[in-house]
Design a protein that fits this description.
Length: 317
């Protein structure tokens, strides 16, 4: 048994390096999408101390809106623009109707409010778009769907054009987000609000404006993620379950850390795929991707409760 755990998997990796590269690539693509969803959680939490339970359904709702608008005969990229308008209206509505009346309430009340937002979006989505699975408008958006083959070490490595596009677009989106947070006035305001609410408000930073902005940015992230996951697995409410894979990413990287969301997402995506192929299938019969990320995050929390990149909280009495 010990040999199957500690020896044989590594022997298999060395014996078939091309297959190892294929596994790592598949994990990298999943990890990029996990990191994107986690960024939506981090942005909202940093600016408002609200854990946004609705981020997963926002991914589904954005994808359903895009597909639904195109089904009405609206051109694909016009549908994208209109979907962004819908996500902005949603951000304004959440701030005005839900968050603003709850300013100053305990964190648990705000968390429960995001659960209410989740249920509202599920009901609205099912009423408007129906509950059946839909096909993402991949070709209409100009997203390539072919593949090409590499032969590393004389072996075989298949790269889907869709996966390459997802990695590139996600990377550009993350870079744009980092530039926005670090170089623009609004981005610095978001960071200031996350560091110290009272100090930020005392210098004239508008809490309401920042809340609308971060919810809209999270909506943009949700749309990009919905397009990517929808192109790979179809558009349905099951995507919400996939989106919750961001939870162990947050536990691993830290709830307030953008770097943690990126690194945690990539790490979990790659490690869960490696574990599934080299340990899960031979020893446990497979399907370890369902729980591996949560177990890994739990182990990290036992030794570092704030996550790998989170700041340690010190209370003085």
């Amino acid at each position: 048994m010990l040999q199957k755990i500690f020896v044989e998997p590594f022997v298999d990796m060395v014996a078939a390096p091309d297959f190892l590269m294929q596994v790592i690539w598949e994990g990298l693509v999943s990890g990029v999408l996990y990191a994107l969803i986690a960024l939506g959680f981090v942005l909202i939490f940093r600016s408002s101390r609200i854990f946004n339970f609705a981020q997963g359904i926002m991914v589904v709702f954005a994808a359903l809106t895009l597909v639904g608008l195109h089904a009405m005969g609206i051109p694909a990229w016009v549908s994208v623009a209109l979907t962004l308008v819908v996500m902005f209206i949603l951000a304004v509505a959440i701030e005005r109707i839900v968050l603003r009346p709850l300013v100053g309430q305990p964190d648990i009340i705000l968390f429960m409010a995001t659960i209410g937002i989740t249920l509202f979006l599920i009901g609205t989505g099912e009423t408007i778009f129906g509950g059946e699975n839909k096909v993402m408008i991949t070709r209409e958006l100009g997203i390539p769907t072919g593949d090409f083959v590499l032969e590393p070490f004389g072996g075989f490595l298949l790269l889907q054009h869709l996966d390459i596009t997802v990695v590139v677009v996600a990377g550009l989106l993350v870079c744009a987000l980092l530039v926005f947070l670090g170089k623009t006035q609004m981005g610095r305001a978001i960071r200031a609000l996350g560091d110290d609410h009272q100090a930020a408000l005392s210098v004239g930073i508008s809490l309401q404006t920042i809340w609308v902005l971060v919810w809209f940015v999270s909506g943009i992230i949700a749309l990009v993620t919905g397009i990517a996951w929808g192109a790979r697995a179809g558009v349905s409410f099951a995507l919400e379950i996939i989106a919750f894979k961001a939870l162990p990413v947050l536990m691993l990287g830290g709830l307030e850390s953008i770097t943690g969301a990126i690194v945690g997402g990539l790490a979990i995506g790659i490690l869960e795929k490696l574990f599934e192929i080299y340990w899960g299938q031979p020893l446990l019969g497979g399907n370890t991707e369902v729980w591996f990320a949560y177990v890994l995050a739990l182990i990290v929390l036992l030794f570092r409760p704030q996550g790998l990149f989170g700041e340690k909280i010190i209370e003085r009495v």
